[in-house]
Specification:
The complex is a heterodimer. By secondary structure, chain A is α/β, with parallel strands linked by helices. Chain A is built from 5 helices and 6 strands, in the order E-E-H-E-E-H-E-H-E-H-H. In chain A, helix 3 (90-98) crosses helix 4. By secondary structure, chain B is of the alpha+beta class. The chains are: A alpha/beta, B alpha+beta. The A-B interface holds A 37, 40, 61-65, 67-68, 71, 75, 89, 91, 94-96, 98-99, 117, 121-129, 135-141 and B 5, 7-8, 10-11, 14-15, 17-18, 21-22, 35, 38-39, 121, 151-152, 154-162, 226, 234, 237-238, 242, 272, 276-278, 280-281, 283-284, 287.
Chain lengths: 142, 543
């Protein structure tokens, strides 16, 4: 069972102490930040060039604000590690990846076999989002 | 109608395989019910009072005969030989065994159907006008855009864990047969400078806080509709309330924030979204639209109908609507026989309707939000034979939009959320007004019953609405008057204290008597109510 899973090259957990979004702006040495569900990811955009890790917290899986936070950061060009932490289960992994998450630190360890299945299960995507695979409509009209 | 290509088929097949795995994990005990619950809900599987209920999506209400036959097969093989057509143009089965659910989904996938996102806090099945493609007044067929949005909303990674469920309706004519402005997003296709696009309303809904959606944008070109909806949804996903599930629908956000501020935020997000290349090319909408090309109508047909059979003439007068092609008609099949359960159909009836659609309506049919069935393209010369066949199967009831054409939710007979039964009340009212001449005398009168405040039976939008509540352990029914889900959309007002099960039937009758005594020439029930107001009704009800 895995307590950490990464899609990034290397794949090891970056052990950076994440600070709150509120304090990040004032701490010029901080390179890791943690975003809570009610926080506005866009506040981080002016500082993206010094961010190496963003943790997005999911206190409960049903609170989907973190999906928008992730996509907003990727849409703004953030290329560092984007980690989903908290109540993260295999059933959410594929959607999280498609919104730009590339590492996962779930509260409860995950079965590696189910992780593999979660990422390979669906052959297509109906939407263009963050993941590099083309949307079905792009394949149709390629 | 739309047919899957290899990409669409692969998606539903993958979903079946995924759910088979999840169900096996549940049945073997690897998953607890708490863990399994969100997974089954993503596939329309609810745990109800007596058994599992499976809700199958009928995208924008359109089905082929082959798909309809599969619905009959599922009712026969896995349920108790009937199905229940819903106010979301879907079908529900009330007696499903969990172990059968993966096989049912596989059967559905074999005819290009699924139960994806028929529950859960995600974008639900998109509803539309049951006269799509057949009505002369529409400016375009609303179904190609509906199908484009079905695909866009399926497995959307950002919008699967919204604050609450999310319902979209698409219509394309001034007449609203889909309660468009009572949806989270209502889209009306409109023309601007010769171009067809979407007029977008956001923040309507029923439930415990009914609201009529305000217009948020007067025109979005087809080429930007996906970006625009992404913007609408993103603002909701980020700022919709999550502290209280009863205040979590987008209508509350739009109401609390104000339509102007919501619009401003959406515009800001939209400007950003448009730069991301999220919209399918126009060629994709054109590809889909080819599937909805008009069927090969015969030409040179007569518009004459022999109405010498009085019963047939009555059925034609009630159930048949004008079609855009000469010699053709739109046929409404009532699922509301007097004393029946609104929206229920037996396997044999579902099979028969499928056969009749194949024989008389180019192999295609529709489910309506009023829980009836439509054959959209029937030759007028075939109407008599069609009616005869329907009559023999107890499907020839002639009560479209009359007081016995009742919308009702399943209520406490099935639903774990309900406070009161809906079905027996619907049956008693239909029986009270069983005399068809009396119904016709009352004219258009839309009566809608919900067994709890969640309003699945659309009681807020009923000319007469009934809401079942629990009062100290006793079922009690509130009466509402003056609602409409049509283009003259309005919300019903509560008359006053509620009634018991028999009292509500009497109250409905009293309300109709006030109408009959006060109406002027040509006025419908709702028109009279709007003119004379609540006072005369209250007086009659509580004297």
């Amino acid at each position: 069972m895995l307590e950490f899973y990464s899609l990034r090259d290397g794949g090891d957990a970056a052990e950076l102490p994440a600070v709150t979004l509120e304090s990040f702006a004032g701490q010029s040495n901080a390179t890791a930040v943690r975003i809570e569900p009610g926080e506005d990811a866009r506040e981080l955009l002016p500082f993206l060039d010094r961010v190496a890790l963003v943790e997005v917290n999911f206190p409960v899986f049903g609170d989907g604000r973190g999906y928008s936070a992730a996509r907003i950061l990727r849409e703004a060009g953030y290329a560092g590690e984007l980690r989903a932490v908290g109540d993260v289960a295999v059933d959410q992994l594929s959607h999280m990846m498609r919104c730009g998450f590339d590492s996962f630190a779930p509260d409860k360890p995950l079965d590696p076999k189910l992780i593999e299945e979660a990422f390979s299960r669906f052959p297509g995507r109906y939407q263009k989002t963050i993941d590099p695979r083309p949307a079905v409509w792009a394949q149709r009209h390629g | 109608m739309y047919q899957y290509d290899k990409y669409d088929q692969a998606m539903v097949d993958a979903r079946v395989a995924e759910f088979r795995d999840q169900t096996e994990r549940r049945l073997s005990g690897q998953l607890s019910e708490a863990q399994f619950r969100p997974l089954r809900l993503m596939n329309g599987l609810y745990l109800q009072l007596h058994a599992y209920m499976l809700r199958v999506a009928v995208p924008y209400g359109t089905l082929s005969s082959k798909q309809m036959k599969m619905l009959a097969h599922i009712a026969r093989k896995y349920d108790r030989d009937y199905g229940h057509f819903t106010t979301r143009q879907n079908i529900q089965y009330n007696w499903i065994k969990l172990a059968d659910a993966p096989d049912i989904l596989a059967d559905l996938a074999s005819v290009e159907m699924h139960a994806i996102q028929t529950s859960g806090n995600c974008i639900r099945n998109i509803s539309s006008d049951q006269y799509a493609g057949a009505s002369a007044e529409e400016i375009a067929d609303p179904r190609p855009l509906s199908e484009l949005l079905r695909q866009w909303s399926s497995f959307h990674p950002e919008f699967t864990y919204l604050p609450r469920k999310f319902k979209i309706a698409v219509i394309a004519s001034a007449t609203d047969r889909a309660a468009m402005r009572l949806h989270d997003i209502g889209i009306e296709l409109v023309k601007k400078d010769g171009e067809i696009g979407a007029r977008v309303f956001v923040g309507g809904g029923m439930g415990r806080t009914p609201m009529i959606a305000p217009e948020i944008r007067d025109f979005v070109p087809f080429s930007e509709v996906v970006s625009y909806l992404e913007a609408c949804l993103r603002v909701y996903n980020r700022y919709g309330r999550r502290d209280n599930k009863y205040k979590a629908r987008i209508k509350i956000l739009v109401h609390e924030m104000g339509a102007d501020e919501y619009r401003r935020q959406v515009e800001e997000e939209f400007a950003h979204m448009k730069t991301l290349g999220l919209d399918p090319p126009v060629a994709e909408l054109e590809r889909i639209a080819e599937h909805f090309a008009p069927p090969p109508y015969e030409t040179g047909l007569s518009d004459e109908i022999d109405l010498s059979d009085r019963d047939f003439a009555a059925w034609v007068g009630s159930q048949v609507a004008a079609h855009k092609a000469p010699g053709y008609a739109i046929v409404n099949i009532s699922l509301k026989p007097i004393g029946g359960i609104p929206g229920d159909a037996s396997s044999a009836q579902i099979d028969l309707i499928a056969d009749l659609a194949a024989k008389y309506s180019f192999d295609e049919l529709r489910v309506t939000h009023a829980q009836n069935i439509v054959l959209a393209h029937v030759k007028k010369a075939d109407l008599y034979a069609l009616w005869k066949a329907l009559e023999e199967a107890d499907l020839g009831t002639a009560n479209l939009d009359l007081i016995s054409d009742i919308i009702a939710c399943p209520g406490l007979d099935y639903c774990s959320l309900a406070n009161a039964r809906s079905i027996p009340v619907a049956q008693k009212i239909a029986q009270r007004f069983a005399d068809i001449d009396r119904q016709k005398e009352l004219g258009e009168l839309k009566l809608k019953i919900s067994g709890c405040i969640n309003a699945c039976g659309h009681h807020h939008a009923g000319n007469i609405g009934i809401l079942g509540v629990d009062r100290k352990g006793v079922e009690n029914y509130q009466l509402l008057l003056g609602g409409s889900g049509a283009e003259d959309v309005s919300l019903g007002q509560i008359t006053g204290p509620g009634f018991d099960e028999n009292g509500i039937v009497d109250a409905v009758e009293k309300a109709t008597n006030v109408y009959l005594a006060n109406r002027t020439e040509g006025e419908r029930f709702v028109d009279t109510f709007r003119r004379i107001g609540m006072a005369p009704f209250k007086e009659a009800l509580y004297a």
